[in-house]
């Protein structure tokens, strides 16, 4: 609107320069000598243009008008503004932001010269600031620090002293503000960083305290200065990150009891002088807070901190810094309290205490202001500071480089050392700087303590605030809208990262590790490892050294993780094996960029990984080849609740994209490895129920088998001898047998199958069989190729004629064989037959055709029952491995898998013709059905189901623990403890109890087997 009005006139209007009241601006500019009827006076065109770049041109011009009337030599000032870009930028920028500094310059017009380029110094040193303030009250001379026996004493006192100090202090802050803001108006000026500005403000505050000391000595008498005492800055002043307007937190310490009384008098006077001249001095962080003594001896401080201090008080001591008074005493104070700070994280409930304190601070923010609170609200400055301080206190025990009093220095060090992700640290630094800059600009307006962001509808304030930060409009967004969007972006990012870091589960685990144990290579560490249960502490230390050696970021992160992992491994059955496995996994994944970041940021991943590595040999072996599963450890539903059918569909889809059968099967193997590892992890962690484990393993095996069959069929069909107009010569169905048919596979199970084919229309049977045989041979070759994964053994020993029979038969040939030649055990084997891959319709017809053999119409006669019992007895005696213990052999032992399965299968052969619900391939479903139809007692059913499930789980546990299949429960105590852990027993359980449980369950099942299967009478 301003521009349109400007275009309508014949001469330039002040409106085009951003002034909202053009007529008032015109009169003020003319009065200043910078405007004529034809527009800006040429000599002052740059000055008017600079005014237009001020955050609030109207505010700046009002300050010009007021200052012009108060200064005695306006023409000289005006001429220098025109000739000195530095002065122009600094002075007009300050006037465009701060009405309070406009007031100061009206009251002290000579201070404009502080901003001249010839004089402007910007942020300076504590010593220079102190000298300026002491000079203001005539406190020159003295050989010691202000407030000490040989320090300078002010010549002025009372109101005269505080007025002089206030004026000089405000002038020094004006210099800092000019340097801070100047680049907004004059781009040629260098803009100091937020850190430099905050440090300069802190240095001025320290200088102010020292000057106040000189005045205090003048007020109370120089004899008081003989007391040895020191002023300790806390909070933002201690960290050299003070605001333009802030209380200054301090603690006072005396050397001896004799020094307490005079030091208390001096301290009280300093607080009064500073409160009138500069800022409030807040001593509430002292021991016992406001109810405690204002001054204590160093010993008194230490006694309090050792006995009574709460967690937040150690957090406050992070920033303790001696700034005034006796420097030697101040240094002793720092040296004495620092060890207390860096062991505070060992306190009981330390991490929850810090988190609770942050929540209490947040809860005190009024709900209607919470979104606008820069300091205390969600996504505000305290979110950054609390997160950084918590990380410092936990990790600073062993890493001295993070022990900085500055929030940003500490954050950058935490990032450099790997305790915070590089990107997270950089994002937090950027957001913290932005929020502090906003806070500074808000406070400059009236030099009042405020942390409240303007309300969304306050467009005028938002606009000027945005411009003071160097933000301008973007497209259709006004500068105020840009600022609002940036404020929300930074606030949301801070909150997200605060919650990620502040509530990181690993922090609690790290805090519980004793400080001495954080130093991983000392002799004390070896003693502690031994006490934790490591059988070879020296070997463990070698692993630790290999993981943490060097100065790399990776070594730093490992140094933070290992103290926690060592404790976690100690809670597993095999701490030494877990640490070795962790080293192997870490070395194998050393170049995987997200690996250590995931462990650092996700505490649950660390805890679960330690459990897995200290229990299982199979998991680490597979993990180095399927590391993506690690990500799932942070997400229980993703780890444990994936639908097996969805897995199978995904696997087949991925494999179908590879025309080459070798690549297709390699892809299938890779996906099977991922799924097998996922299921194994969920199983070991107790997140997946046993029946879901069996089904998931069976489903992925079937998917691999089907993928291999489809790829092989496509490949074989391309061979010259099979290419013809009729297409593929045969349909092939894969019939699952044994535990594959029952969908009850374990981690090390073979796949028992039959292959059935049927000629395509117009194809000779012999041709179809030869084609199908070529396909099956390729399937077996591809799946049977050597691999580091658990084997994919396709067992076709249950086919007609067994190992002497053809690899593939037609449906008619199979039926003919079963009609003429099949023994009773072959009918028994067919009980678990179901179509699993290939041509589904052919598979269903096969199963329908064999129903009359596996569910004989009249059941079994006594001769066949005796034959089955005889075969079972022979299997028990001949197939049990030499030296195996029949009591603890999960497959062939007493009450084991074979006992239960043969018992059910005998019942199915006897009764399935009459009870359709018995016609199932699953052992557990079959047992439940037998109970429901009344051919098996309910209690017997429960005994058999419990024994079968325990045997299957134990067999799987052995595979997970050893990394290779095995049917015998281990005898070695550590292996048996690992099996117990895999079965869900609590840590430290007596392995004798585990074995007793297994023997009791299987003994009861064996009693049922002897009565039901063998027909033996029992008491």
UniProtKB/TrEMBL annotation:
EC number: 2.7.7.89, 2.7.7.42
Biological processes annotated in GO: regulation of glutamine family amino acid metabolic process
Molecular-function annotations in GO: [glutamate-ammonia-ligase] adenylyltransferase activity; [glutamine synthetase]-adenylyl-L-tyrosine phosphorylase activity; ATP binding; magnesium ion binding
Top EC group: transferase
Keywords: ATP-binding, Magnesium, Multifunctional enzyme, Nucleotide-binding, Nucleotidyltransferase, Transferase
Span list, region Adenylyl transferase: 514-1019
Cell division among keywords: no
Alphabetized InterPro entries for the sequence: GlnE (IPR023057), GlnE_rpt_dom (IPR005190), NT_sf (IPR043519), PII_UdlTrfase/GS_AdlTrfase (IPR013546)
Protein name, UniProt field: Bifunctional glutamine synthetase adenylyltransferase/adenylyl-removing enzyme
Domain PII-uridylyltransferase/Glutamine-synthetase adenylyltransferase: 357-502, 887-1012
Organism phylogeny: Bacteria, Bacillati, Actinomycetota, Actinomycetes, Pseudonocardiales
